[in-house]
Predict the structure.
Amino acid sequence: METGEEFGPWLARQLKLAGKTQAELADELELTRAAVSAWITGRSTPRPTVMADIARALGTDVGTVHTRTTDTQAGLPVTWYHRPGYLDGGRDLGNAAAFAFDADVQVLARETCQNSLDERLRGNGRPVKVRYTLHELTGEALDAFREAILWNDLFPHYSAVSETAGNQKVGRVVDAGVRDMYEKGRLVLLRVDDYNASGLIGDDYSDGKFAAVVRRQLESLKSGPGAGGSYGLGKATLWATSALGLVLINSTLSVPHEGRTERRAIGRLELPWREVDGESYAGPAWFGRPDPDSPGAMVARSWWADEETMESLYLTRETDEPGTSFLIVGAHDVAGQAVNSSDLDDVPLGPEEEGDEDTRDITRMHARLVEALGRDFWAAMTGGGSRLPLLEVSVRALRNGKEVVAEQQVDPSVEQPSRTRALRAYYEGTTVSRLTEAGQVAASSVPLKLPLSGGAHGTFGTHQAVLLVTDAEGDRDGAKNRMHSLRGNRMTVKRTVVPRLPNSTNPFQAVLLVGEAAGETAPFANEAEEFLRAAEPPEHDRWGQTEELTLRWSPSAYRRINALTTEANNAVRELVARPKHSGGEGGEALRKALTVRTRPKAKTPTGPVVPVLDGLDATVGDGGEWQITGEVSIPRGDEIVPMVPVAQFDVRSGGRPRLDWAELVGVEGCEAENGTLRFTPGARRAKFRGTTDVTSHPVRTTLTRLVVELRVGKGSDA
């Protein structure tokens, strides 16, 4: 028989839940108050024959008293507590933290997986396991779930928000979410489970991980210097991804709380200010057991749920391993709606899903989750030598409990084959100093000079980052000639193109390991972690100038990061440069022995010729700008027409918005003058680089596609 909490703390809580005092229980049992006090303080335990009397007094069964794996259901049932409106009339029309991120499942994957990595239990050496489950509910399953979350109690609050939806953004999102559920008769749940993680430990109200996630904003309590998060904003993506603003939680604790570890449950709702039945409510609400210690027992706190309740809320965890399950109710993927369905033509659908837009929506979300996890966490999922993977991730999709898309284990060697090969070679000690054969991995050191804190001049120490370079495997790695930079938790922070490469460079992929990622024994690894962590914005997608970096070090501290980038780019160019071969005797003898027939030289056409853009490489910079490199083919002729590169955003209808150039330079075979490319006479190929002006972008760069054209420029009659 499973035994849960110690009898004394369990009995004390049950008396609070039932609204009974120790004296009242003693009278009902016809015992002395001292006997009950001895049970609660742990000095003694009741005889088995008394257990049945205690069960009757608490309104429960004897088994519950014996096992104590759940609370009794007497007295104070689970309910919703809505925070009352502020007495001074202030109004919060939404959680500002949620606006730091888009309602995007790829952003959600990045933030939640990073949080799970940060909370991994390191003592056993095993990876943290994270599973994403998309679950669409319809019909009876939807009705049963709404009953389980007490939807009838919530509906007046959603109705009040919908009535004022036209006045503010959060209200419009919530209104659309409710209408979608009723009009389409479905609700999408997105569940994030992690195992071998710390779980939401700590008290309901005082300092701890539970309160930081469930009760507070802008508080980050991360484990270890290599943690990815630092702002306390990442958890807001859970609520931002819910069109209903609702997230339910079930946590298995690594450290007992109230003598228990399993099925600690709570729900949090994020709505704007509203007025219901003449009462004003500030915004958030909590789904839990009323706390007897709060005024009027109104405030809802976490409760120890039974297995049946967890099943009805779709929160049953598969094992008793510590970790947390987050259930996002009414999940939506705003950015995913902009993805062209043709991008998913290769995703297999079952016969019943063909032409079913709702199912394809789940399938699209599934595909986008796999893509994001493979792109951002390939290094955390890679092991080799004595280094074990930090992370295992899978994604699946269900409808009413039946499989729609089979569970897919994210494989880094499939998602990022070249970089995975490079990192594994580094772990196994098989890197080389220079690339001479296909499949090799070259390694080099890159210095990061750490500044003194407090604005003092000088260098605290030099950390040696590790640069890895290997040849690219076709299109499987994505865009070629890129460098992924990462630190301790092995999440990709920066993805940048390596500039100013020779035309003859073979396609490659590069990895820059900094801080603890370079090895825990690397000099100043912890200091590099702290410095770079402070240089990351809330999105944790670049290193640069931040307020924290300025306050803790100096306004110019970011230049140390720029120097690291410059050194890394120089090292890449050196590693991928083809060695120059000098003509030896053998080569000269062979040349003399060969007879090469040359074709008659073709007659050069007369008149102007128009260059053609036949190659384009583009990436998004740290500031959201497009950075492009264009290659131009030039027909033979005695006059080359000047051309104007034109950058535009691709749109489905209407004219394409034109972007301004912040920088346009000729690299080879041409010069840029006032936005026009003028080509070197006799050149057959040319190359140019350009950077768009972000202030001319009508929408965010990451939500668009870029079109670049060459148009006939000034100084030509063509």
